[in-house]
C-alpha cells in the first residue's frame, strides 16, 4: 500500500524525540499552533502544526481528513491508554494512541532506508498490510460501539469535524487555565462558570474540575443540583449542574435551588473537610435569580467566569470556510454568502455562536431558511417539520416525535405502544439504530451512561443538545399543541410552555398556551396527582378548571 504523500512513517514516543522534532518543525508553526504528530482514522501518521487542546481520559487525539484535531476512544485493554486528561501535544506519553508505530522509540532513523534489508522490508510490508486489514475490521466494529466524548446537558462548543453528526464538548485552553488558576487559590472555595446556551459551559467546567483535582490530588464528583448528598469526603471538588431545569426554568424550582445552596454552603462551612465547588450556570438564569436567590448565599458566588464572546470571529470564519462553504460544490448555494456577522445575528442572540456553527455544519440544508429568517431556532424548527414529508427521513421524524414526547429512549424501559399507535408513528423499539448516521445527527447516548459504560440494552438516548430538543418541541407544538399538552413529558411542558398573559422572560425558547391547552394540562396533572405539587406554576395556578 502506497503511503499518502506528506505522511510520515512513525511518530516520536518520548519527550526528547518529540521536542527534537518540534524544534525541527518550528518554522512551520506560528501563533497558538504547535507541533503535533498524530494518526488519522486510517492509521496514517502526519506532522502538523495545530492549536493544542485538552484530551479526556481514555481518548486519543487524531487528525481528521481535513487536518483538524479530533479524538477517538482508546482501547481500554491496552496498558498505555491515557489514564488521565492531558494536553494533545503530550500524546507521546501514550504510545498506543499511535497504533502501529514501526520505528518504536527510534524516531531519528525513520528515513534511513539502508537500515532495512530488502527481504525484511518486503516481509514488513506484508505484515503491515495484514495488520491494516485487521485494524480496519476492528475500527469498523468499534465505530458501531463508539461513544462520543460529549457531556450530558452541556452547552457544546466549537466542533472540529461535525459533518458526520458527531458532537464534541470542546473547551478552549485559556478558559480552562483561567478557571484552574482561580480555583487553585487557597482562599477560593467556589467558582461560577456561566455563559449563554451554546458556549460550552458544562464541558469547560468539567475540564476545570478534572485539572484542579489532578493538580491538588483530590477526588471529584458531578451532581445535579437536585441530587446533592448531605456530605462529601475530605478533599473533594464538586461540579453542580442542571440549575432550574433541564431545558429551561420550570418556575417552581426556587425552593429546590435554595435547599441546594444551603446544603453547599454548609459543606464549605465544615472546617474539618477541604471542599471546593464549581457551579455550571446558564447566564440568563443566573442573572434572573441573582438577587432573589443567590444573594442570600453570596459566599458561594464570589468568583465568576463568563464564556460569552471569548472566541474570535477569525476562528469562526476559518471554520465556516472549511467546514460549511468548502465542502459545498453548489456555487449558487446561500452558504457562500454566510458571514460570522450574519450568523451572530440579533434575533437569535440567545444562542451562542459555537452551537449555531455546529447546527449549520450538521444541517447544511437549513442554511437557506436560516439566511432568510436570521433565526437558528425557526430554521431548525422548519427543518425538523420538513422531515415528515421526506420518505427516507420519516423514521427519523417519528423518532424525534417519540423522544421529544417521552424525554428519552431506552430499550430497558417499556416502549409506549399506545402513544405510537395513537400518533400513527411507524417505529418500534427494535428499529432504533444508534449506528445510523441519520440518527447520529439528532440523538446521542447520555453522558452518564457513557461514563459508567452502560450496556446497549440499558443505555438512554437523548437529543445531542438541549437546544435541539427545544427545536423539536417547538416543531411538535406548532403542529399539534393538544398532543404536546396531553402526551409530552411534564418537565418539558413546565419549562417551555407559558400561559397567555404571563410575563415571558425567555420568550425566545418558550411557547404560549391558550386557555384550552392550559385546561387540558390542568386536567392531566389533576388526574395523575401532580397539580398540587406544581401549583405555583403559572399553568397550574388556581383558576376555575373548565371542562374541555
State the gist of this model.
The protein has 548 residues and is an alpha/beta fold. The chain is built from 19 helices and 16 strands.
Written account of the structure:
With 548 residues, this protein is of the alpha/beta class. It folds into three domains: 15-145, no CATH class; 173-306, 3-Layer(aba) Sandwich (Rossmann fold), CATH 3.40.50; 385-527, no CATH class. The protein is built from 19 helices and 16 strands. A five-stranded parallel β-sheet has the order 8-9-10-7-11, sandwiched between helices. The protein has a three-stranded antiparallel β-sheet with strand order 12-14-13. It has a two-stranded antiparallel sheet with strand order 1-2. Helix 11 crosses helix 16, helix 12 (394-406) crosses helix 16 and helix 16 (466-479) crosses helix 17. The N and C termini lie far apart (72 Å). The relative contact order is 0.08.
Describe the secondary structure blueprint for this structure.
Blueprint: H1 15-24, E1 33-39, E2 45-51, E3 54-55, E4 59-63, E5 69-73, E6 86-87, H2 118-145, H3 173-183, E7 190-195, H4 201-216, E8 219-224, E9 236-241, H5 254-269, E10 275-282, H6 283-288, E11 304-306, H7 313-325, H8 340-344, H9 353-362, H10 367-373, H11 376-387, H12 394-406, E12 409-410, H13 417-422, H14 437-440, E13 443-445, H15 447-451, E14 460-463, H16 466-479, H17 481-487, H18 490-496, E15 497-499, E16 511-513, H19 515-527
Parallel strand pairs: 7-10, 7-11, 8-9, 9-10, 15-16
Antiparallel strand pairs: 1-2, 3-6, 4-5, 12-14, 13-14
Amino acid at each position: 500500500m502506497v503511503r499518502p504523500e506528506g505522511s510520515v512513517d512513525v511518530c516520536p514516543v518520548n519527550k526528547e524525540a518529540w521536542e527534537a522534532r518540534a524544534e525541527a518543525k518550528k518554522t512551520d508553526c506560528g501563533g497558538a499552533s504547535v507541533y503535533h504528530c498524530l494518526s488519522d482514522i486510517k492509521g496514517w501518521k502526519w506532522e502538523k502544526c495545530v492549536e493544542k487542546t485538552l484530551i479526556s481520559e481514555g481518548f486519543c487525539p487524531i487528525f481528521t481528513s481535513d487536518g483538524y484535531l479530533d479524538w477517538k476512544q482508546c482501547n481500554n485493554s491496552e496498558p498505555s491508554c491515557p489514564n488521565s486528561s492531558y494536553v494533545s501535544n503530550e500524546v507521546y506519553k501514550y504510545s498506543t494512541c499511535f497504533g502501529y508505530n514501526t520505528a518504536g522509540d527510534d524516531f531519528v532513523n525513520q528515513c534511513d532506508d539502508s537500515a532495512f534489508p530488502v527481504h525484511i522490508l518486503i516481509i514488513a510490508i506484508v505484515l503491515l498490510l495484514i495488520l491494516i486489514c485487521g485494524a480496519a475490521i476492528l475500527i469498523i466494529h468499534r465505530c458501531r460501539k463508539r461513544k462520543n466524548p460529549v457531556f450530558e446537558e452541556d452547552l457544546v462548543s466549537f466542533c472540529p469535524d461535525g459533518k458526520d453528526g458527531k458532537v464534541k464538548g470542546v473547551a478552549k485552553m485559556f478558559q480552562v487555565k483561567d478557571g484552574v488558576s482561580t480555583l487553585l487559590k487557597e482562599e477560593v472555595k467556589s467558582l461560577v462558570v456561566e455563559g449563554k446556551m451554546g458556549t460550552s459551559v458544562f464541558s469547560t467546567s468539567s475540564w476545570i474540575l478534572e485539572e484542579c483535582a489532578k493538580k491538588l490530588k483530590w477526588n471529584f464528583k458531578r451532581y445535579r443540583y437536585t441530587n446533592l448528598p448531605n456530605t462529601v469526603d475530605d478533599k473533594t471538588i464538586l461540579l453542580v449542574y442542571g440549575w432550574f431545569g433541564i431545558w429551561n426554568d420550570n418556575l417552581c424550582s426556587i425552593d429546590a435551588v435554595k435547599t441546594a445552596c444551603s446544603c453547599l454552603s454548609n459543606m464549605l462551612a465544615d472546617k474539618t473537610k477541604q471542599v471546593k465547588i464549581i457551579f455550571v450556570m446558564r447566564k440568563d438564569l443566573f442573572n434572573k435569580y441573582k438577587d432573589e436567590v443567590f444573594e442570600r448565599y453570596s459566599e458561594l458566588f464570589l468568583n465568576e467566569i463568563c464564556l460569552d464572546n471569548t472566541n474570535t470571529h477569525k476562528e469562526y470564519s476559518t471554520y465556516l470556510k472549511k467546514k460549511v462553504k468548502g465542502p459545498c460544490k453548489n456555487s449558487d448555494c446561500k452558504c457562500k454568502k454566510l458571514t460570522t456577522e450574519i450568523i451572530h445575528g440579533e434575533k437569535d442572540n440567545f444562542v451562542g455562536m459555537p452551537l449555531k456553527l455546529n447546527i449549520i455544519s450538521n444541517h447544511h440544508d437549513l442554511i437557506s431558511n436560516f439566511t432568510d429568517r436570521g433565526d437558528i431556532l425557526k430554521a431548525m424548527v422548519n427543518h425538523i417539520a420538513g422531515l415528515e414529508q421526506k420518505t427516507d427521513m420519516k423514521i427519523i421524524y417519528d423518532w424525534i416525535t417519540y423522544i421529544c414526547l417521552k424525554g428519552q429512549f431506552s430499550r430497558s424501559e417499556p416502549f409506549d405502544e399506545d402513544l405510537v399507535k395513537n400518533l400513527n408513528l411507524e417505529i418500534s423499539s427494535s428499529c432504533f439504530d444508534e449506528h445510523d448516521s441519520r440518527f447520529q445527527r439528532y440523538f446521542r447516548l447520555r453522558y452518564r451512561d457513557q461514563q459508567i459504560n452502560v450496556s446497549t440494552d440499558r443505555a438512554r438516548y437523548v437529543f445531542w443538545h438541549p437546544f435541539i430538543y427545544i427545536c423539536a418541541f417547538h416543531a411538535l407544538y406548532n403542529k399539534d399543541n393538544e398532543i404536546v399538552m396531553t402526551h409530552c413529558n411534564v418537565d418539558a411542558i413546565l419549562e417551555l410552555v407559558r400561559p397567555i398573559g404571563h410575563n415571558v422572560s425567555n420568550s425566545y425558547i418558550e411557547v404560549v398556551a391558550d386557555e384550552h391547552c392550559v385546561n387540558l394540562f390542568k386536567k392531566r396533572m389533576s388526574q395523575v396527582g401532580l397539580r398540587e405539587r406544581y401549583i405555583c406554576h403559572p399553568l397550574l395556578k388556581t383558576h376555575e378548571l373548565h371542562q374541555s
